[in-house]
């Protein structure tokens, strides 16, 4: 039986207007009333104790907080179930039309799967026809299995250091934000490392309940800012917009919002080599000072700040081999590479000094600089192929064929790039092609 499913990128997002209408419908249904809240949570598949705002808010405020919370943590299943509950109340009229429009944003959870089939009782079989024998992969569950697996091929060292830092942080009294600095060149898939942090690493390090998730918020770096004395105000505005859709909230008001959630919160920011080049070498210290002045935590609050430093390296393009076709462009890129190399070296030394000092000048932070994200060796990918996660997908008898394909991949890369290591961006693309680009999807239902 063949079946289509929707990629995450195809899912429509709720607008602020959608969230307000959704909350209004929930309030009008009566299911946001104090006496009905616990039952509502159970029916949509969340634990009532997860909501720090369960008891203290008026009906309309509770409805808005609940919808915003579920949307923030991307709990699409709970939102879809909530739509189904409200359908029994609003069957005709304008309210029904509003609900239908909102529910259309979650149709990927219903229309792409037969309604009599649960998310956990299908098996996906993927056959890849490569140079050797066909590979047979089987996966049982509700989410696509291969999306993040290639990005775990060379990140054990970072995970081990993170575990140590998290345990030290959890034992810290009083508790402060945990700052985690992740650095590597721009081709090491920083964004996917963040997804691995959110989905695998932090839930494991924090020993989260399976029903808990990690809330993610982006704090944009003000790259055009020339006066770093204004950095604190600009960061506060950017964070308020990200968390509350409001530019004028204070740090205390933002932290109060975080305190309502039992789930850990990740705030992540990207810094590029060009930011150091344009704004000077104090930008990291200034950023850490912003979090140094964060309001006091309440008991049990968990806030993780992730700084992703991307070393720009201006990788040489194949076309540049024929430099005589564009001499000016070649010289310009060569100059930029030299400048970035020098800045990257200084950033690296700055991170070494920060590690050696154990973040001593930031006594209201718990900090860790994770080992550099580096390109991947063949041996590391072969170890990945033998890992439990991959062995659950690939038949044991087919592991040898997978190893052969990995060997061919590295031989070709070394031949064309004169390197025996592959950047994570390129590696993940190749591994995904290996496993799925010529895949035939078959679904067998029990």
Explain this structure.
The chain has a 5-stranded parallel sheet with strand order 4-5-6-3-7, sandwiched between helices. A 3-stranded antiparallel sheet has the order 2-1-10. A two-stranded antiparallel sheet has the order 8-9. It is globular. It has 446 residues and is an alpha/beta fold. The chain has helices at residues 16-29, 37-43, 59-72, 76-87, 93-103, 156-170, 190-205, 231-244, 251-259, 273-279, 283-292, 327-357, 378-385, 388-391, 399-417, 424-437, and strands at residues 122-128, 135-140, 178-185, 215-218, 265-272, 303-311, 366-369, 376-377, 421-422, 440-445. It folds into 3 domains: 8-109; 122-148 and 386-445, no CATH class; 155-369, Rossmann fold. Mean pLDDT is 81; it is low at 1-11, 107-145, 318-324 and 437-446. The protein has 16 helices and 10 strands.
User: What overall form do the CA principal axes indicate?
Assistant: globular
The radius of gyration over CA amounts to: 25 Å
Give the CATH class of the largest domain: Alpha Beta
Helix content: 40-55%
**Through-space gap between termini:** 12 Å
Strand content: 5-15%
Helix count equals: 16
Protein structure class: alpha/beta
Number of domains: 3
* Parts with pLDDT < 50 across at least 5 consecutive residues: 1-11, 107-145, 318-324, 437-446
Identify the strand order in the major beta sheet.
4-5-6-3-7
Let me know the largest β-sheet: 5 strands, parallel
What is the element string, with H for helices and E for strands?
A: HHHHHEEHEHEHHEHHEHEEHHHEHE
Report the mean per-residue pLDDT as an integer: 81
What is the CATH architecture annotation of the largest domain? 3-Layer(aba) Sandwich
- Give me the count of strands: 10
User: In the CATH scheme, what's the topology name of the largest domain?
Assistant: Rossmann fold
């Amino acid at each position: 039986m063949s079946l289509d499913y929707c990629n995450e990128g195809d899912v429509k997002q709720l607008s602020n207007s959608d969230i307000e209408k959704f909350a209004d419908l929930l309030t009008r249904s009566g299911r946001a009333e104090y006496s009905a809240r616990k039952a509502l949570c159970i029916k949509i598949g969340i634990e009532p104790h997860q909501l720090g705002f369960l008891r203290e808010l008026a009906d309309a405020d509770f409805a808005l907080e609940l919808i915003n919370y579920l949307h923030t943590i991307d709990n699409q299943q709970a939102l879809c179930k909530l739509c189904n509950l409200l359908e029994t109340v609003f069957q005709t009229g304008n309210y029904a039309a509003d609900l239908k429009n909102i529910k259309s944003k979650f149709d990927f959870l219903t229309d792409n799967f037969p309604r009599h089939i649960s998310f956990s009782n299908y098996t996906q079989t993927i056959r890849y026809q490569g140079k050797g024998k066909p590979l047979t992969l089987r996966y049982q569950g509700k989410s696509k299995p291969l999306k993040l697996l290639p990005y775990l091929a060379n990140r054990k060292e970072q995970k081990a250091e993170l575990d140590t830092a998290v345990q030290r942080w959890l034992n810290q009294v009083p508790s402060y934000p945990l700052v985690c600095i992740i650095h590597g060149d721009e081709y090491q898939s920083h964004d996917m490392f963040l997804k691995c942090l959110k989905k695998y690493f932090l839930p494991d390090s924090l020993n989260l309940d399976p029903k808990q998730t990690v809330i993610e918020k982006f704090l944009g770096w003000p790259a055009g800012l020339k006066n770093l004395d204004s950095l604190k105000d600009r960061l506060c505005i950017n964070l308020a917009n990200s968390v509350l859709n409001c530019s004028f909230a204070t740090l205390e008001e933002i932290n109060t919002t975080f305190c309502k959630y039992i789930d850990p919160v990740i705030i992540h920011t990207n810094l590029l080599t060009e930011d150091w080049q344009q704004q000077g070498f104090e930008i990291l210290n200034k950023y850490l000072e912003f979090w140094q002045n964060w309001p006091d935590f309440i008991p049990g609050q968990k806030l993780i700040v992730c700084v992703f430093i991307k070393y720009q390296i201006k990788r040489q393009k194949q076309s540049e081999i024929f430099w005589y076709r564009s001499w000016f462009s070649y010289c310009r890129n060569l100059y930029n590479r030299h400048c970035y190399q020098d800045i990257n070296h200084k950033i690296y030394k700055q991170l070494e000094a920060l590690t050696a000092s154990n973040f001593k000048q930031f006594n209201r932070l718990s900090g860790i600089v994770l080992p550099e994200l580096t390109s991947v060796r063949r041996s590391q990918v072969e170890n990945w192929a033998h890992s439990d996660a991959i062995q659950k997908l690939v038949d044991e008898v087919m592991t040898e064929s997978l190893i052969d394909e990995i060997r061919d991949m590295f031989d070709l890369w070394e031949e064309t790039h004169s390197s025996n290591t592959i950047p994570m961006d390129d590696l993940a693309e190749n591994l995904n092609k290996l496993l799925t680009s010529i895949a035939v999807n078959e679904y067998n239902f029990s």
